[in-house]
Protein backbone atom coordinates (compact mmCIF):
# COMPACT_ATOMS: atom_id res chain seq x y z
CA UNK A 1 0.00 0.00 0.00
CA UNK A 2 2.74 2.38 0.86
CA UNK A 3 4.45 1.46 -2.35
CA UNK A 4 1.33 2.41 -4.40
CA UNK A 5 0.88 5.76 -2.68
CA UNK A 6 4.50 6.64 -3.24
CA UNK A 7 4.20 5.88 -6.94
CA UNK A 8 1.18 8.20 -7.32
CA UNK A 9 2.93 11.10 -5.59
CA UNK A 10 5.95 10.74 -7.86
CA UNK A 11 3.81 10.67 -11.00
CA UNK A 12 1.95 13.85 -10.04
CA UNK A 13 5.12 15.79 -9.37
CA UNK A 14 6.55 14.72 -12.66
CA UNK A 15 3.50 16.02 -14.60
CA UNK A 16 3.43 19.44 -12.87
CA UNK A 17 7.10 20.24 -13.41
CA UNK A 18 7.00 20.42 -17.27
CA UNK A 19 3.92 22.64 -17.19
CA UNK A 20 5.59 25.10 -14.88
CA UNK A 21 8.61 25.06 -17.10
CA UNK A 22 6.43 25.82 -20.13
CA UNK A 23 4.81 28.78 -18.35
CA UNK A 24 8.20 30.17 -17.49
CA UNK A 25 9.24 29.89 -21.15
CA UNK A 26 6.12 31.85 -22.27
CA UNK A 27 6.83 34.56 -19.71
CA UNK A 28 10.41 34.81 -20.98
CA UNK A 29 9.12 35.10 -24.55
CA UNK A 30 6.72 37.88 -23.57
CA UNK A 31 9.52 39.74 -21.80
CA UNK A 32 11.73 39.32 -24.88
CA UNK A 33 8.95 40.79 -27.11
CA UNK A 34 9.29 44.13 -25.35
CA UNK A 35 12.59 44.59 -27.17
CA UNK A 36 11.03 44.04 -30.61
CA UNK A 37 10.34 47.21 -32.78
CA UNK A 38 6.76 48.36 -32.95
CA UNK A 39 5.01 47.86 -36.34
CA UNK A 40 4.51 50.89 -38.63
CA UNK A 41 0.91 52.07 -38.36
CA UNK A 42 -0.85 54.36 -40.91
CA UNK A 43 -0.62 58.08 -40.07
CA UNK A 44 -3.74 60.07 -39.27
CA UNK A 45 -5.85 61.17 -36.36
CA UNK A 46 -6.52 58.59 -33.71
CA UNK A 47 -9.68 56.64 -33.95
CA UNK A 48 -12.56 58.63 -32.53
CA UNK A 49 -10.86 62.03 -33.20
CA UNK A 50 -11.96 62.43 -36.86
CA UNK A 51 -13.81 65.77 -37.49
CA UNK A 52 -17.53 65.43 -37.95
CA UNK A 53 -18.66 65.63 -41.59
CA UNK A 54 -20.16 68.94 -42.73
CA UNK A 55 -23.73 67.97 -43.40
CA UNK A 56 -25.78 70.07 -45.81
CA UNK A 57 -29.42 70.00 -46.72
CA UNK A 58 -28.46 69.53 -50.38
CA UNK A 59 -25.90 67.11 -51.86
CA UNK A 60 -22.56 68.33 -53.14
CA UNK A 61 -22.36 68.76 -56.90
CA UNK A 62 -19.31 66.45 -57.07
CA UNK A 63 -21.19 63.50 -55.66
CA UNK A 64 -21.10 60.40 -57.84
CA UNK A 65 -23.87 59.93 -60.33
CA UNK A 66 -26.24 57.26 -59.19
CA UNK A 67 -29.41 55.65 -60.45
CA UNK A 68 -32.52 57.77 -60.48
CA UNK A 69 -36.16 56.97 -60.15
CA UNK A 70 -39.31 58.69 -61.35
CA UNK A 71 -39.13 62.37 -60.47
CA UNK A 72 -35.64 62.06 -58.95
CA UNK A 73 -32.51 63.65 -60.39
CA UNK A 74 -28.83 63.56 -59.55
CA UNK A 75 -25.83 65.88 -59.71
CA UNK A 76 -24.99 64.96 -63.30
CA UNK A 77 -28.49 65.76 -64.57
CA UNK A 78 -28.51 69.04 -62.64
CA UNK A 79 -25.13 70.12 -64.06
CA UNK A 80 -26.21 69.27 -67.60
CA UNK A 81 -29.36 71.38 -67.17
CA UNK A 82 -27.31 74.30 -65.80
CA UNK A 83 -25.14 74.21 -68.91
CA UNK A 84 -28.26 74.07 -71.08
CA UNK A 85 -29.79 77.26 -69.65
CA UNK A 86 -26.55 79.22 -69.17
CA UNK A 87 -26.99 81.40 -72.27
CA UNK A 88 -30.77 81.90 -72.10
CA UNK A 89 -32.56 85.14 -71.30
CA UNK A 90 -34.13 85.54 -67.87
CA UNK A 91 -37.70 84.67 -68.88
CA UNK A 92 -36.60 81.66 -70.93
CA UNK A 93 -34.41 80.39 -68.09
CA UNK A 94 -37.36 80.65 -65.68
CA UNK A 95 -39.46 78.51 -68.01
CA UNK A 96 -36.71 75.91 -68.31
CA UNK A 97 -36.22 75.62 -64.54
CA UNK A 98 -39.99 75.31 -64.03
CA UNK A 99 -40.00 72.54 -66.61
CA UNK A 100 -37.11 70.89 -64.74
CA UNK A 101 -39.08 70.87 -61.49
CA UNK A 102 -42.09 69.43 -63.29
CA UNK A 103 -39.90 66.66 -64.66
CA UNK A 104 -38.08 66.07 -61.36
CA UNK A 105 -40.52 67.09 -58.58
CA UNK A 106 -38.41 65.30 -55.95
CA UNK A 107 -35.18 67.02 -57.03
CA UNK A 108 -32.44 67.20 -54.43
CA UNK A 109 -31.67 70.68 -55.74
CA UNK A 110 -35.21 72.10 -55.48
CA UNK A 111 -34.37 74.79 -52.94
CA UNK A 112 -31.48 76.26 -54.93
CA UNK A 113 -33.53 76.10 -58.16
CA UNK A 114 -36.38 78.00 -56.49
CA UNK A 115 -33.89 80.63 -55.29
CA UNK A 116 -32.59 80.97 -58.84
CA UNK A 117 -36.12 81.41 -60.21
CA UNK A 118 -36.84 84.09 -57.60
CA UNK A 119 -33.67 85.98 -58.58
CA UNK A 120 -34.60 85.84 -62.26
CA UNK A 121 -38.13 87.10 -61.54
CA UNK A 122 -36.68 90.06 -59.66
CA UNK A 123 -34.55 90.85 -62.70
CA UNK A 124 -37.59 90.68 -64.99
CA UNK A 125 -40.00 92.81 -62.97
CA UNK A 126 -37.70 95.02 -60.94
CA UNK A 127 -35.80 96.65 -63.77
CA UNK A 128 -36.20 100.12 -65.25
CA UNK A 129 -37.54 100.75 -68.72
CA UNK A 130 -34.71 99.95 -71.07
CA UNK A 131 -32.46 97.06 -72.02
CA UNK A 132 -29.38 95.27 -70.77
CA UNK A 133 -27.15 97.18 -73.17
CA UNK A 134 -27.97 100.43 -71.38
CA UNK A 135 -26.69 100.11 -67.82
CA UNK A 136 -27.43 102.96 -65.45
CA UNK A 137 -24.24 104.95 -64.84
CA UNK A 138 -22.95 106.10 -61.50
CA UNK A 139 -24.03 109.69 -62.19
CA UNK A 140 -27.77 109.47 -62.77
CA UNK A 141 -27.77 112.85 -64.53
CA UNK A 142 -25.63 111.30 -67.27
CA UNK A 143 -27.79 108.22 -67.85
CA UNK A 144 -30.21 107.58 -70.69
CA UNK A 145 -33.72 108.81 -69.95
CA UNK A 146 -36.31 106.51 -71.49
CA UNK A 147 -39.37 108.54 -72.39
CA UNK A 148 -42.04 106.83 -74.50
CA UNK A 149 -42.70 107.89 -78.09
CA UNK A 150 -45.95 109.81 -78.84
CA UNK A 151 -48.04 108.98 -81.90
CA UNK A 152 -49.01 112.27 -83.57
CA UNK A 153 -46.74 114.54 -81.53
CA UNK A 154 -43.00 114.96 -81.99
CA UNK A 155 -40.48 113.00 -79.98
CA UNK A 156 -38.73 115.38 -77.56
CA UNK A 157 -36.10 112.99 -76.17
CA UNK A 158 -32.86 112.74 -78.24
CA UNK A 159 -32.23 109.04 -78.90
CA UNK A 160 -31.12 106.87 -81.80
CA UNK A 161 -34.21 105.15 -83.18
CA UNK A 162 -36.31 104.21 -86.20
CA UNK A 163 -40.05 104.97 -86.34
CA UNK A 164 -42.67 103.81 -88.85
CA UNK A 165 -46.46 104.13 -88.73
CA UNK A 166 -49.75 104.66 -90.49
CA UNK A 167 -53.03 106.47 -89.91
CA UNK A 168 -56.19 105.71 -91.86
CA UNK A 169 -59.25 107.89 -91.41
CA UNK A 170 -62.72 108.29 -92.87
CA UNK A 171 -63.62 109.27 -95.46
CA UNK A 172 -60.32 109.50 -97.40
CA UNK A 173 -57.50 110.30 -94.99
CA UNK A 174 -54.23 108.34 -95.24
CA UNK A 175 -51.03 109.16 -93.41
CA UNK A 176 -47.93 107.01 -93.86
CA UNK A 177 -44.74 108.05 -92.13
CA UNK A 178 -41.22 106.84 -91.46
CA UNK A 179 -38.21 108.48 -89.88
CA UNK A 180 -34.76 107.94 -88.46
CA UNK A 181 -33.17 109.85 -85.58
CA UNK A 182 -29.51 109.64 -84.64
CA UNK A 183 -28.16 110.87 -81.31
CA UNK A 184 -24.78 112.48 -81.90
CA UNK A 185 -24.58 113.15 -78.18
CA UNK A 186 -26.74 112.21 -75.24
CA UNK A 187 -28.57 115.57 -75.47
CA UNK A 188 -28.34 116.31 -79.20
CA UNK A 189 -29.68 114.47 -82.23
CA UNK A 190 -30.43 114.91 -85.93
CA UNK A 191 -33.42 113.38 -87.71
CA UNK A 192 -35.03 112.95 -91.11
CA UNK A 193 -38.19 111.42 -92.51
CA UNK A 194 -41.31 111.63 -94.60
CA UNK A 195 -45.00 111.88 -93.66
CA UNK A 196 -48.39 113.19 -94.74
CA UNK A 197 -49.34 116.32 -92.82
CA UNK A 198 -52.58 118.26 -93.13
CA UNK A 199 -51.03 120.46 -95.81
CA UNK A 200 -49.81 117.49 -97.90
CA UNK A 201 -46.92 115.06 -98.19
CA UNK A 202 -43.80 116.41 -96.52
CA UNK A 203 -40.08 115.58 -96.51
CA UNK A 204 -38.49 116.70 -93.25
CA UNK A 205 -35.15 117.12 -91.51
CA UNK A 206 -34.28 118.67 -88.18
CA UNK A 207 -32.25 118.87 -84.99
CA UNK A 208 -33.12 118.34 -81.35
CA UNK A 209 -31.29 119.68 -78.28
CA UNK A 210 -32.16 118.84 -74.68
CA UNK A 211 -30.40 121.30 -72.34
CA UNK A 212 -32.06 119.47 -69.43
CA UNK A 213 -32.01 115.69 -69.46
CA UNK A 214 -31.75 113.98 -66.08
CA UNK A 215 -32.29 110.36 -65.23
CA UNK A 216 -32.15 111.24 -61.53
CA UNK A 217 -35.16 113.55 -61.70
CA UNK A 218 -36.76 111.92 -64.76
CA UNK A 219 -36.96 115.28 -66.55
CA UNK A 220 -36.23 116.35 -70.11
CA UNK A 221 -36.61 119.82 -71.65
CA UNK A 222 -35.88 120.04 -75.38
CA UNK A 223 -35.77 122.55 -78.22
CA UNK A 224 -36.80 121.28 -81.67
CA UNK A 225 -36.04 122.86 -85.03
CA UNK A 226 -37.43 121.09 -88.12
CA UNK A 227 -37.28 122.23 -91.72
CA UNK A 228 -39.78 120.58 -94.04
CA UNK A 229 -40.61 120.71 -97.73
CA UNK A 230 -44.27 120.33 -98.64
CA UNK A 231 -44.88 118.53 -101.93
CA UNK A 232 -48.37 119.50 -103.16
CA UNK A 233 -48.58 122.46 -103.02
CA UNK A 234 -44.83 122.97 -103.00
CA UNK A 235 -43.39 125.26 -100.31
CA UNK A 236 -40.89 125.08 -97.43
CA UNK A 237 -41.84 125.51 -93.78
CA UNK A 238 -40.04 125.85 -90.48
CA UNK A 239 -41.33 124.16 -87.30
CA UNK A 240 -39.67 125.43 -84.08
CA UNK A 241 -41.03 123.86 -80.87
CA UNK A 242 -40.24 123.46 -77.19
CA UNK A 243 -41.14 120.34 -75.24
CA UNK A 244 -40.99 119.06 -71.67
CA UNK A 245 -41.28 115.51 -70.36
CA UNK A 246 -41.43 113.96 -66.91
CA UNK A 247 -41.20 110.37 -65.72
CA UNK A 248 -42.90 109.63 -62.38
CA UNK A 249 -43.63 106.78 -59.97
CA UNK A 250 -40.60 104.61 -60.75
CA UNK A 251 -41.08 104.85 -64.54
CA UNK A 252 -44.77 103.96 -64.38
CA UNK A 253 -46.19 107.32 -65.55
CA UNK A 254 -44.78 109.30 -68.50
CA UNK A 255 -46.03 112.85 -69.07
CA UNK A 256 -45.00 115.21 -71.86
CA UNK A 257 -46.21 118.38 -73.55
CA UNK A 258 -45.00 120.54 -76.43
CA UNK A 259 -45.85 123.81 -78.13
CA UNK A 260 -44.59 125.62 -81.24
CA UNK A 261 -45.31 126.96 -84.70
CA UNK A 262 -45.38 125.75 -88.31
CA UNK A 263 -44.28 128.74 -90.40
CA UNK A 264 -45.24 128.33 -94.06
CA UNK A 265 -43.02 130.23 -96.49
CA UNK A 266 -45.19 130.88 -99.53
CA UNK A 267 -47.14 133.65 -101.25
CA UNK A 268 -50.11 133.38 -98.91
CA UNK A 269 -48.10 132.73 -95.79
CA UNK A 270 -49.76 131.11 -92.83
CA UNK A 271 -48.73 130.61 -89.24
CA UNK A 272 -49.89 127.38 -87.63
CA UNK A 273 -49.89 127.16 -83.85
CA UNK A 274 -49.21 123.52 -83.03
CA UNK A 275 -48.87 121.51 -79.84
CA UNK A 276 -50.31 118.85 -77.60
CA UNK A 277 -49.74 116.53 -74.64
CA UNK A 278 -49.35 112.82 -73.95
CA UNK A 279 -49.85 110.70 -70.82
CA UNK A 280 -48.74 107.06 -70.76
CA UNK A 281 -49.21 104.67 -67.84
CA UNK A 282 -47.38 101.35 -67.68
CA UNK A 283 -49.71 98.73 -66.23
CA UNK A 284 -46.85 96.20 -66.46
CA UNK A 285 -43.26 96.18 -67.74
CA UNK A 286 -44.54 95.20 -71.20
CA UNK A 287 -47.96 96.90 -71.55
CA UNK A 288 -49.02 100.54 -71.27
CA UNK A 289 -52.11 102.67 -71.90
CA UNK A 290 -51.86 106.16 -73.37
CA UNK A 291 -53.98 109.25 -74.01
CA UNK A 292 -52.82 112.01 -76.33
CA UNK A 293 -54.19 115.28 -77.59
CA UNK A 294 -53.00 117.52 -80.41
CA UNK A 295 -54.09 120.76 -82.06
CA UNK A 296 -53.38 122.75 -85.21
CA UNK A 297 -54.64 126.34 -85.24
CA UNK A 298 -54.03 128.70 -88.17
CA UNK A 299 -54.73 132.27 -89.18
CA UNK A 300 -55.81 131.97 -92.80
CA UNK A 301 -54.04 135.24 -93.76
CA UNK A 302 -52.31 138.00 -91.92
CA UNK A 303 -55.22 140.35 -92.84
CA UNK A 304 -58.61 138.80 -92.23
CA UNK A 305 -57.72 136.79 -89.11
CA UNK A 306 -59.99 133.88 -89.94
CA UNK A 307 -59.12 131.05 -87.52
CA UNK A 308 -58.99 127.44 -88.71
CA UNK A 309 -58.61 124.73 -86.06
CA UNK A 310 -58.37 120.96 -86.02
CA UNK A 311 -57.98 119.34 -82.60
CA UNK A 312 -57.82 115.61 -81.96
CA UNK A 313 -57.67 113.11 -79.10
CA UNK A 314 -55.81 109.83 -79.52
CA UNK A 315 -55.97 106.85 -77.16
CA UNK A 316 -54.75 103.29 -77.30
CA UNK A 317 -52.40 100.64 -75.98
CA UNK A 318 -48.64 100.34 -76.17
CA UNK A 319 -46.64 97.11 -76.11
CA UNK A 320 -42.95 96.48 -75.46
CA UNK A 321 -42.29 93.14 -77.20
CA UNK A 322 -38.96 91.41 -76.86
CA UNK A 323 -36.57 91.64 -79.81
CA UNK A 324 -33.80 89.04 -80.01
CA UNK A 325 -31.74 89.06 -76.82
CA UNK A 326 -32.69 92.63 -75.94
CA UNK A 327 -34.98 93.24 -73.02
CA UNK A 328 -38.46 94.81 -73.39
CA UNK A 329 -38.66 98.56 -74.15
CA UNK A 330 -36.16 98.30 -77.03
CA UNK A 331 -39.27 98.21 -79.24
CA UNK A 332 -42.51 100.14 -78.79
CA UNK A 333 -45.57 98.93 -80.71
CA UNK A 334 -48.69 101.11 -80.60
CA UNK A 335 -52.30 100.61 -81.62
CA UNK A 336 -54.66 103.56 -81.26
CA UNK A 337 -57.65 105.52 -82.50
CA UNK A 338 -58.00 109.25 -83.15
CA UNK A 339 -61.17 111.31 -82.73
CA UNK A 340 -61.40 114.97 -83.84
CA UNK A 341 -63.12 117.51 -81.59
CA UNK A 342 -63.28 121.32 -81.29
CA UNK A 343 -62.82 121.70 -85.05
CA UNK A 344 -63.52 124.89 -86.95
CA UNK A 345 -63.54 125.03 -90.78
CA UNK A 346 -61.13 122.10 -91.02
CA UNK A 347 -62.24 118.47 -91.12
CA UNK A 348 -59.45 116.26 -92.43
CA UNK A 349 -61.17 113.11 -91.19
CA UNK A 350 -64.02 112.04 -88.92
CA UNK A 351 -61.95 109.54 -87.01
CA UNK A 352 -58.99 107.30 -87.73
CA UNK A 353 -57.11 104.23 -86.56
CA UNK A 354 -53.35 104.21 -86.08
CA UNK A 355 -50.44 101.83 -85.79
CA UNK A 356 -46.85 102.74 -84.96
CA UNK A 357 -43.59 100.99 -84.14
CA UNK A 358 -40.42 102.56 -82.73
CA UNK A 359 -37.17 100.65 -82.39
CA UNK A 360 -34.44 102.11 -80.21
CA UNK A 361 -30.95 101.19 -81.32
CA UNK A 362 -28.38 100.32 -78.62
CA UNK A 363 -26.69 103.41 -77.24
CA UNK A 364 -22.91 103.58 -77.73
Please give a handful of descriptors for the protein shown.
twelve-stranded antiparallel beta barrel, alpha+beta, 364 residues, Porin, 4 helices
Could you explain how this protein is built, in words?
The chain has four helices and twelve strands. By secondary structure, the protein is α+β, with helices and mostly antiparallel strands. It folds into two domains: 75-125, no CATH class; 140-360, Porin (Beta Barrel), CATH 2.40.160. Strands 1-2-3-4-5-6-7-8-9-10-11-12 form a twelve-stranded antiparallel beta barrel. Helix 3 packs antiparallel against helix 4 (110-125). It is elongated. The chain starts with a helix and ends with a strand. Mean pLDDT is 81; it is low at 13-34, 41-67 and 127-138.
Secondary-structure topology with pairs:
Blueprint (H helix, E strand, L loop, with lengths): L1 H32 L41 H11 L4 H14 L6 H16 L35 E9 L3 E13 L2 E10 L2 E15 L4 E12 L4 E14 L4 E12 L6 E14 L2 E13 L7 E13 L11 E14 L7 E9 L4
Antiparallel strand pairs: 1-2, 1-12, 2-3, 3-4, 4-5, 5-6, 6-7, 7-8, 8-9, 9-10, 10-11, 11-12
Query: Which of globular, elongated, flat, extended, rod-shaped describes the shape?
Result: elongated
CATH-derived topology of the largest domain: Porin
The residue ranges in which pLDDT falls below 50 over 5 or more consecutive positions are 13-34, 41-67, 127-138
Please write the CATH class name of the largest domain. Mainly Beta
Query: Could you spell the SSE succession in H and E letters?
Result: HHHHEEEEEEEEEEEE
The helicity comes to: 10-25%
Largest sheet: 12 strands, antiparallel, barrel
Report the β-strand fraction as a percent range.
Answer: 35-45%
Query: What's the CATH architecture name of the largest domain?
Result: Beta Barrel
Radius of gyration: 43 Å
**Multimeric state of these chains?**
single chain
What is the rounded distance between the termini?
A: 132 Å
Query: What structural category characterises the helix and strand content?
Result: alpha+beta
